[in-house]
């Protein structure tokens, strides 16, 4: 049976170094790590995960909770998180929100099945999340944040992004506009709505209640809402959706009703890769999702190794990206 001593002899390092490759690989130089990993592969050495976890009190596993994998925003975030965590020697377990996914993730922390959890779906009504943070569990929130929660959080300038959409529409003469938002308990939808609606009102073109909608972050719900808007005699000149998936639904409704984009502009939020495809050409607010994911992964790794550090909040700026869904009009 191959042991860690055999790996150490072949790699020309100590057994302690072999152990560090398995428990804290980020602390070693890439050359040393590569030499030990090559020796492991040559000898066919497979560490016993259970024994390793008992010895180090670490599983080298991170949990990630996402809202909806059919929304292209989340696979993009997951891709970047996986890259960053894999480089640091951690595996990733994914929970897709719905049912008891938050509960399952927090239970995994309590049972030491994971070393920490990254939430992309946190809401302020999660009692379990609050309890886990009070126990100093390693948790980072990305994308959606919760005010007053004492943990590391990574977000983008949602309020400013919403205000930028309002300025762009008004600067181009679009004054009769609608807003289609997501869940009201999600910070992202709430902040984007606030920035947009407040700026519209500040500039003298408040959005009436019958042009404001909230529901799920859903393509189908957005398409249904858009159909109702398009059936009105006073249909809007433009619609701002709280994310790109919803904007795709609005664009599909426009196509189904044979209404050209110049008659009713559509703007989304996120700038997922699909937004730039010719079939969508979506004007949208770009938040740097991959940079946010990298920052969140690094913050969680630091939190695991330095649990006593004060919590941090990182806020990334956003940019309005103009494309064909608003006729490529100048800002």
CATH superfamily of the largest domain: Response regulator
Shape: elongated
Please report which band the strand proportion falls in: under 5%, 5-15%, 15-25%, 25-35%, 35-45% or over 45%. Answer: 15-25%
Identify the strand order in the major beta sheet: 2-1-3-4-5-11
Give the helix tally: 12
Low-confidence stretches: 49-56
* Rg measurement, Å: 24 Å
CATH class of the largest domain: Alpha Beta
End-to-end gap: 68 Å
SSE order, one letter for each helix or strand: HHHHEHEHEHEEHEHEHEHEEHEE
Instruction: Kindly state the number of beta strands.
Output: 12
CATH architecture of the largest domain: 3-Layer(aba) Sandwich
Number of structurally distinct domains:
3
CATH-derived topology of the largest domain: Rossmann fold
Approximately how much helix is present in the residues?
40-55%
Secondary-structure class: alpha/beta
């Amino acid at each position: 049976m191959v042991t860690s001593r055999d790996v150490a002899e072949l790699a020309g390092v100590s057994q302690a170094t072999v152990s560090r490759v398995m428990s804290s690989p980020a602390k070693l130089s890439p050359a040393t790590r590569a030499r030990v990993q090559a020796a492991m592969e040559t000898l066919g050495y497979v560490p016993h995960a259970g024994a390793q976890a008992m010895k180090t009190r670490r599983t080298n596993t991170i949990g990630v909770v996402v809202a909806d994998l059919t929304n292209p925003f989340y696979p993009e975030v997951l891709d970047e998180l996986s890259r960053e965590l894999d480089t640091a020697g951690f595996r990733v377990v994914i929970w897709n929100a719905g049912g008891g996914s938050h509960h399952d993730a927090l239970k995994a922390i309590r049972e030491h099945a994971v070393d920490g959890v990254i939430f992309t779906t946190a809401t302020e009504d999660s009692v379990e999340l609050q309890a886990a943070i009070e126990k100093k569990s390693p948790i980072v929130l990305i994308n959606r944040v919760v005010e007053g929660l004492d943990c590391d959080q990574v977000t983008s300038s949602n309020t400013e992004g919403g205000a930028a959409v309002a300025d762009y529409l008004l600067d181009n003469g679009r004054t009769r506009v609608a807003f289609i938002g997501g869940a009201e308990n999600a910070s992202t939808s709430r902040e984007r709505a606030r920035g947009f609606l407040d700026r519209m009102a500040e500039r003298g073109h408040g959005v009436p209640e019958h042009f404001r909608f909230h529901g799920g972050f859903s393509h189908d719900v957005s398409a249904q809402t858009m159909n109702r808007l398009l059936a009105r005699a006073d249909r809007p000149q433009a619609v701002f959706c709280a994310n790109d998936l919803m904007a795709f639904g609005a664009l599909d409704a426009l196509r189904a009703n044979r209404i050209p984009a110049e008659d009713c502009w559509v703007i989304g939020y996120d700038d997922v890769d699909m937004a730039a495809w010719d079939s969508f050409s979506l004007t949208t607010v770009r938040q740097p999702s991959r940079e946010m994911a990298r920052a969140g992964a690094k913050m969680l790794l630091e939190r695991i190794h330095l649990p006593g550090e004060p919590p941090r909040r990182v806020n990334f700026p956003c940019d309005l990206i103009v494309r064909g869904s608003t006729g490529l009009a100048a800002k």
